[in-house]
Amino acid sequence: MSIAQLAGQPRAKRILQHALSSGKVSHAYLFSGPPGSGRLKMAMAFAKALFCEQGGDDACGHCLECRKFEHGNQPDLHLVEPDGSSIKIDQIRELQRELAYRNIHAARKVYIMQRAETMTLQAANSLLKFLEEPQSPLVAILLTDNGQAMLPTIRSRTQLVPFVPLAPQAMLQALADEGHPQLPARAAVQLASGLDACRALIQQNGFAEMRNVVIQLGKDSLNRFTAAMLSLQQIMKTELAEQPQLLLSLLALWYKDMIHFQAGRQESLVFIDQLDWIGKHAYARPAEGWVACMEHTLEAGKRIRAHVSPQLALEQLLIRVQEG
Predict the structure, then answer these.
(1) pTM score, whole prediction
(2) Rounded to the nearest 5°, which phi and psi values hold at 94?
(3) Which domains are present in the chain?
């Protein structure tokens, strides 16, 4: 995978590709952004480009170094991740020992540190010495959810590369390119942060079935109260009952689709296969009424987290939706 092939993050790509094309690669980078924003994949793609023999603004994918990298045979790439809950000073010392060995064939060495904010104070201070006296062919890539949690002295010695949450449309396109079915993917990108979480949700047993259940429950909840209650009782007897929060999240998206339709945003519908039904029923309530349905759904989720019985919370939700 090359930098250009990764989904989203145009600003991060510009920073890294400019560094590669200009030859002004920093000795240390801080990739800061939320989980699911693709920091590790970008770090790996950047590292691959750093080793590439072609010397352009991205990895060529064909040279010997790129092939070695793709097969996991790049000895000059070092990965560091927390040992338990933190990155400890012994890990930094071991990294320094490994990087001290000279490789006459290597143009540079690269290390990628995941969850860099978990470094102990001793580990961070040890790394700081390393950053203050950089070895010219060495590139550090530190990954963190929160750049502000890093020592200011480390932040000042690294180049910040900011990451933002991936836009749902960008994730949807990436999932489509990978061959994932459109209907579950449209729901997943609204529920999960990041492509890995989306893939896991789509592949989860029962997700497609849960989506179908929510469609029926959403329809019945508006004007077929008895049918909705019977459907709910049947659901609570199945394995789907083990994921009430997922059911509620999907149901909130169902009501949100009514607002999208009223606003003329049909392309934003999650339940796009129900366009005809939604078109006939979206104006049964004003937008404020659908917002109220979403609020009732979120409130049911809060009650379940407060240890109210899921069945009771869902039954009360259906009553409130029916009442408007």
Answers:
(1) 0.71
(2) -65, -40
(3) 10-165 (3.40.50.300), 205-323 (1.20.272)
